[in-house]
Amino acid sequence: MEPTVHPFSDLFAQLGLPNDTASIQQFIATHSPLPNGMRLEEAPFWSPAQSQLLREERLDDADWAMVVDRLNVALHDDGTSPAA
Q: Which residues contact 7 (CB under 8 A, 6 or more apart)?
């Protein structure tokens, strides 16, 4: 059985955030880059519930771990990488 790959929009919906493309791009632009060494769920802009959800999904649920990792990469990117 293949794991489900969730899009960013599903993760943002789970976090209770606007999940349209423009809102996601704005969120990432507003909150990046996170400092090196800061775990995604430790970022100060998450509510306690959002932080807990990110931590649990990263650790416990392989289906969500991939998209949480993608968000982590996006928020740590300083805009100088070729993927930006």
A: 67
Residue 84 pLDDT > 50, yes or no?
no
* pLDDT of 30 above 80: yes
pTM score = 0.84
- Asked whether 63 and 74 are in contact (CB, 8 A), the reply is no
Segments in the chain forming alpha helices (H): 8-14, 21-31, 48-60, 62-76
Q: Do 75 and 43 form a contact (C-beta atoms < 8 A)?
A: yes
Residue 13's nearest CA partner among 23, 28, 3 is 23
> Could you give the CA distance from residue 18 to residue 12 in angstroms, rounded to a whole number?
7
* 19: its two tokens: 């999940």
